[in-house]
Amino acid sequence: MRNIGIMAHIDAGKTTTSERILYYTGKSHKIGEVDDGSATMDWMEQEQDRGITIVSAATTCYWKNDQINIIDTPGHVDFTAEVERSLRVLDGAVAIFCAVGGVEPQSETVWHQADKYKVARIVYINKMDRTGANFFNVLGDIEKKLGARPIPLYLPIGSENSYEGNIDLLRMEEIRWDMDTQGETFSYSPLAEERKALAEEWREKLVDSLSSFSDEITELFLEGEEIPNELIKKVLRKETIERNVMPVFVGSSLKNKGVQPLLDGVLDYLPSPTDLPAVNCHHMKKDEEIKLERDVNGPLAGLVFKIQQDREMGPLCFVRLYSGSLKSGTAVMNINKKKRERVNRLLRMHSNNHEQINSIDAGDIAVIVGMKLAQTGDTIGSEGYPVLLESMDFPEPVISVAIEPRTISDQDKLRQSLEILQREDPTFAVRENEETGQLVIAGMGELHLDVLTTRLMKEYKVEANIGNPQVSYREAITRAVEHREVFDKTLAGKENRADITFRIEPDQRGAGNSFHSELPKNKLPLDFQEAVKRGILNALQSGTLMGYAMIDVKATLLDAVYDTNVSTELAFETAASLGLDNACRKGAPVLMEPVMHVDIMCPVDYVGDVISSLTQRGGLVHSMETKPSFELVKAQAPMAKLFGYSTVLRSQTQGRGTFSLEFSHFAEKLN
pTM for this one? Predict the structure, then answer.
């Protein structure tokens, strides 16, 4: 079995490649195309309208009797959470690069996400038929920008309009696809005389790269002996799984060339679940970190990595099982929520269609129907062996819009629909402004919110008015403050008293909020210290300047007066909450605004105009790179100044410039 993802920059051809894989493995009977909205993996109406992938779609197919679970991920930076949660549960990935664009900004982002989750990768250089395609430039790009070691196993024969097939460096033969059968059949032929020297040079480079990992290959190489392909494949597989090298494949998915060798590469070089080391997790009862073996006969442990709402079946919980086996109709423990949940049915997904299955084993991916409480990142397991798998981190939403129902009757429907969308998407936040009672929704970018609000109206049939996009600010303190808070109130005839002293101070940017206690438990029982922590961390959710959440605040409990007769947890939690508000006012609070990474691609002639307009918007240019057909400008700029920037860029570059935004950090708002 292989669990693989397909990841790349927007428009590198992920969905087109997925469609070919489904066709050649017999999963679909005709090739779906993104351009005419018939792609199997882009099943959502929004995806077909816009021609982009928005949600990661899962499917299962079989190649040479081996099962491959595939997740096709979005390429647009606004949907980075979809990529993040897919990579968290995958064992391997196919990284697709455009033969013209090479390593583009979003491909760097997903590459680093894959590094974070230690995902083994093979590389597929796509679009060899496009004008400006250059296979060797992309190889250099991968080495230089990603610090990776690409090892080509195939070389293209020709490029652009004259791209006709590949040279197989292991078989030392040429391979061409039959266009009459939509590339389903292909044939090998001996190397042409004019290509022999190039093939031998790269075959030698391949052997040379692998000799540093294998003494056996080195000895055979030095003795001038023939190195068997089986040995090359064995070493290549081992080093790919350990993420030391990346085998490189090449083709043009749209022209149906190069996909079958890529499928062979998935089986030959990417890990099966049993090839990988034990999983790190936290044992709840023992309160210690442990290693969990990936064993079918082991205790049950799986991670819910995605929730999708279905009209008839309710929430569909996508689960990756790491250990044990799971049968439909059984009860499981939701370790995060400490509640039992029932697995009514198990489904094997194929995009938005499904088939029912009876059980799944460790290593597999399936959908559970019937779990009511599960959220993205929850672990399911057994009561007897409660282990918590590492969850996922999602970036903070940086842009928000106000939303209100058009009629009173739409009010409940709007709230319910927002709840469903929030459960599906961890980077989508909904909050109510306490002063105005206005509903505010927040997301990762203008496109993200546009997609969500369109779904509200089209899918959930909610009539709503939507305001203009606003920036989601944060607040922070700039100096340390020590504060004592006494709370003393009689509630329902019982005295509630708490007396605490704590210090708050600004932490490093990006460190998040934290709470530490310097008190031993005989001075203040642990339950009461927990109450203080709850009070402080909850109060940090709304600041003192404009009610935005506080960030990077370090709180330390220094002293407390505890009296068994009148001290209650409620009193301590309330004292902490009120005290924090008072302390923050003395901590010279400031407003923090989101600063974005901006990557702009535009033709050379317009670079000067683009940079000057970006500088006027408070942007700082960090670097520039020259690509074959455009310039790439990397900069940072405040989010507030970037609204409507796409229109400005289009008019400046006669419609030829594109840009992508990604959250970088929060910085103090200067004016």
Answer: 0.73
